[in-house]
Amino acid sequence: MIVSDALGQHIVPEIQALPQLLSIYVFCDNQTIHQQWAKTIPKVKGVYTQIEPICEALQIDRRNCDRDMISISFNRIDPLFMYTQLL
Fold this sequence. Notes:
14% strand
């Protein structure tokens, strides 16, 4: 989620506990002011004053998410199949 400075300062503390929300990026005009409150919230990945760094951070996080979703099986058996066999 990308939030603006004024909105982010009020809404992020309210929605940070949502399990669906993994990352928050703050877009603002004064980075030093908003970094203070953003540091208290673990899901805030960064405070940015330009859009390009946000795009780069989103691309990196997307790649990491894609990589984490790839299932690796060393014995070449589908994990879902193994799970059903354990039941």
